[in-house]
Amino acid sequence: MKIRLMVKDDIASVCELYHSAFWSKAKPLARLEDQKAKQLIETIFFKANDNFRFYYVAEEEDQVLGVIKLMRSYDKERHSLPSLKQFVSVGFFRLIKTGLILSLIDDEINVQDLYVEILVVSPHARGKGIGSKLLDFALEKACESDCVNFLTLGVLAENTGAFRLYQRYGFEIVGEYQHNLLEKHAGIKKMLSMSKDIRRKNDCIL
Question: Which in 111, 117, 123, 132 has the greatest CB count within 10 A?
Fold first, then answer.
């Protein structure tokens, strides 16, 4: 298995992973046809080609099995607006709610952080250590810079599988976040902020 920078040809596979991990469960999009929801994900996140620089995919035998998104405090992601046709087909208020969810789960990134915004493994490839390998990759990237002291991420409190993985990897809870609107419109009861201190250089994989 290799981990490499995302390219345009990976869009369909990554949108599938996004959809399976979260967006199919988010209340505003839950009732959309799968294909329509994936098209919306592609429009919002991947129409701007320079967004690819934040994403790395785990690939084996030409199949994308996982994706990780890494960001620093100075990174700026471009979100594209849906077309008028998509606005009509998806529904204006549903898109407003989707934007609300994005804004509420958007974690603050400190200057000394490398932030794991998303880490998803294909449902068909779980239990094979791919999540750990993607975290190894993130740690390696963090250790390449003397300016990065912490590897950070956010996780749904009810996602116990991911939470246990991060704990085993040395992440600790540094905060939690709840919002009535987040629970009402996305079904998310609590978000946990987690951090791994990498200032002990023996933690680095170099």
Answer: 117
Residue with tokens 């994989």: 205
By CB neighbour count within 10 A (0-12 exposed, 13-18 middle, 19+ buried), where does 38 fall?
Answer: buried
Using alpha carbons, select from 67, 62, 3, 17 the residue that is nearest to residue 205. 3
Query: Rounded CA gap, 53 and 205, in Å?
Result: 22
CA distances from 110 to 1, 77, 122, 125, 152 (A): 32, 16, 29, 32, 9
Containing 2, the helix (H) or strand (E) segment is strand 2-5
pLDDT in tens, 4-43: 999 999 999 999 898 887 655 555 556 667 777 787 778 7
Virtual CA dihedral for 33, 89, 66, 135, nearest 10 degrees?
-120
Cα dihedral 167→55→70→188 (10° resolution): -60
Interatomic CA distance for residues 174 and 152, integer angstroms:
10
Distance in angstroms (rounded) separating the CA atoms of residues 169 and 119:
14
